[in-house]
Amino acid sequence: MCRRCLVHVCPQRDRTCLSSGSYLLNFKGCGECGKMEFIKIAELEKNETETDETVTYQHQCSECSHKIADHEYTFTIDGEYQEYAMNCVLCGYGEDRVSIMPDDPEKIAQYDMY
Hints:
The chain has 114 residues and is mainly β. The chain has a single domain (3-112), classed as Sandwich (Immunoglobulin-like), CATH 2.60.40.4240. The chain contains one helix and five strands. A hairpin with a 5-residue loop joins strand 2 (52-61) and strand 3 (67-78). The chain is elongated, with a radius of gyration of 17 Å. It comes from Acanthamoeba castellanii (strain ATCC 30010 / Neff).
């Protein structure tokens, strides 16, 4: 990770979880060569099972190959829910949980309280 390349270290992204790409608004330029070029994806690895998926890669400067950040994305099926998570100092931290059922039991219970 290179703090010189970032506007903010690991910004909170709420429910946003990227399995590819880069959060360019948080990139202030390469801390090594000083260029503000596109970010390339390197060392991409995907691991999948029947219920899980993990994607990891590096964000690198397209000019000098300086390593900006490591990116990790996970997807998991947990019972009746799909869970997503992203952890990256460039793209930030985010997680989401979505019901695979037509009516989300947790949200229905939440509205029954009123």
